[in-house]
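pasting input
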Amino acid sequence: MIQAQPNREMYGKTLVELGERDSRVVVLDADVAKSTNTYRFRDRFPDRFFDVGSTEMNMVCMAAGLATTGLIPFASTFVIFASLRAAEAVRTSIAYPRLNVKIVATNAGVEICGDGVTHQGVEDLAVMRTIPNLVVLAPSDPVMTRKAVLAIAEYQGPVYMRLGRQTAPVLYDEKADFTIGKMIRVREGEDVTLIACGNMVEASLVAAEELAREGIQARVLDCHTVKPLDREEILRAAEQTRAIVTAEDHSIVGGLGAAVCEVVAESCPTIVRRVGLRDLFASSGREPGRLLAHFQMDSREIARQAREALSTALAAPGVRQAGRRS
Amino acid sequence: MKKTFDPKFLEETARELRVEILRMIANAGSGHPGGSLSAIDLVTYLYFYRLRIDPSQPDWDGRDRFVLSKGHCAPAMYAALAKRGYFPADWLETLRDVGSRLQGHPDMRKTPGVDMTTGSLGQGFACAAGIALGGKLQNKEYRVYVMLGDGELQEGIVWETAMSAAQYQLDNLIAMVDNNRCQTDGFTAEIVNVEPLDEKWRAFGWHVQRIDGHDFRQIHEAIEAAQQRDKRPHVVIADTVKGKGVPSMENRPEWHGLPPTPQQAEAFIAELLGEVRP
C-alpha cells in the first residue's frame, strides 16, 4: 500500500521497479541524486547510472545521444535547472528530433521553502509547454506519480515531468486510472470548477470542502497533463459550471492557468481566476504551508478566488451566455 | 568509396564536393561556405574511406556514427551523403527551401544518413558523447566521430562534455576540431582566443593529436591512431583554412556565413578547378 511521501521519493522507487523489468532504462543526474531520489536507482543499478556532475545542458544532450542508441534515458535535476538552464538543449536536442528521453525534474515550485528564489522553479510549465513534441506532466500524489513514471517509460517520445519536494498525501486508490492527456475528475460539482496540478490538487480539494460548507459545489479536476491539454474536460467545465479557478505552484504567467484561459477564450468564454505566483519572485520560508499562504497560493486563496469568480460570473451573465455552446 | 587508403582519390572527391558546396549555397541564397570548405577534407576522409556505413541502410545498428556538431556546415555533409548515395543528388538543389529534406542545419528526422540533429553549438558534441556511452553500455563496436569548430569551443557545454567523456572513458569517441581560426565576427584569436588547444584538451584527459586538416596522409594517420581503445577519448585538432580551395575566399572570416552569388560561385569554382587565377 502506497503511503504519503514526497512524489520525488516515489519517482526514485518506481525507477528501481522499471530498472528491474527493463534493461534499456538508464538514469542520469546532475549532482542532486539524493534530492531527486535517483540514488535509489544508482544503488541498485550502478552500471546504468551516470552522475554527470553539475552539467545540466551536457546531461540533457547526453540523454539525447543515449536515446538514439535504443536506450530509455531518464534525466533528473531540479526544475529550475532542467527548465531554464537546459531549456534550449531540451528543445533542440530532444524535442525537435523527438527522442525518447524522459526529463523528470524535482523540487518544483515555491513549496521547496528554505533554498529560496534561486531554487524555486516556477517557470517550467510555461517554458516546456511552448515546445512542440513534448509531453508535460505534473502529477499530484504518490499513486499518480508511480503510474505516470510507468506510463512515460512505455510512451515513445520526449516527456518533461515536474515533481514536488514536500510530502504529498495519497489522494487516489491504487486502482485509479492514469492516462496521459486525460484529466481526473476528483470531485463533482456544478457551481465552479477548480483545475489544479501537482501539490495544488490537494489544496483545491481542501478549498472545495470550505466552499461546500457555504453551499458552493466545486468540481475539482486533477490536470496532471499540462500538455497535451484535455480540452474536452475544460470545455465541459466551462459549459457545466459558472466559473473556473486554476491552481498551480508556478507563476500565473504562461502555466496551467494560462493554458486553460487559452482554451476557454477560444471556444467557451468563461471567467477564469488563476491562483499561483503573481509574477514576482517568491522567497525562502521555513514551512511550506506558511510560505504558500504568504504568497496567496493556498486553499484559502483558491476558495476566495472561487467566490469572487462566481460573483463576477453572476454579475455579468452575458459573458457566459455569449460563449455557451447550445 | 575505396577500401584502400588512396589520397589521390580522396583529393579528387573533395574537389568535387567543394564544387557542390559552392553551388548548393549560392543556389540557396544563404549558408556557411567558409567552414564547409575547411571541413570538407575531413568529411571526405570519413565518408569515402573511414566510416563503416551502409547507405542502403542508414539506420543500421552497427554503423559508425558521425555527428556534425558545427551543424552550420551541413552543406559539406549533404554533399558527401548525396555522393555516397543516401539520397538523390537533386535534393541538393532544394537546400534551405520550404519543404526540403535538407534543412539549414542537419535534421536526423528529415535527412537519411544524419545521425544527430545539430546546429546549436556544443550540443552535438554532448549528444555524440551520449551515443558513445550508449555504444559502450551495449557492447557495440561502432565508433562515434564528431566534428567541432574552433569558435564552437567557446561554448561552455563543450568543456562539460569534455570532462564527462574522459570520466566515462569514452575511447570510442573521436572528436575532430576543424580549426579554421575564424568565426562569424572575425578571427577567433581576436574575438575570444581558444588556444592553446592541445594543452586544453590534454588537461581534460583526452588523447590529443594535432595535424594539418587538409593533408589526407596526416588525417589518415591521426584517425588510425585514434582507433585505440585505451580508456581515453580522442581529439584530432585539425588546423585548417577557412574557405580552403578557393584562393579568393581563403582565411577570410566574412565568408563564414555569407553565400556567394551564383556568378561569384561560378568564378570561385573556376579558381577551385585551377582554370583561372584569382
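fyi Residues 5-168 of chain A form a domain with the Rossmann fold fold (CATH 3.40.50.970).
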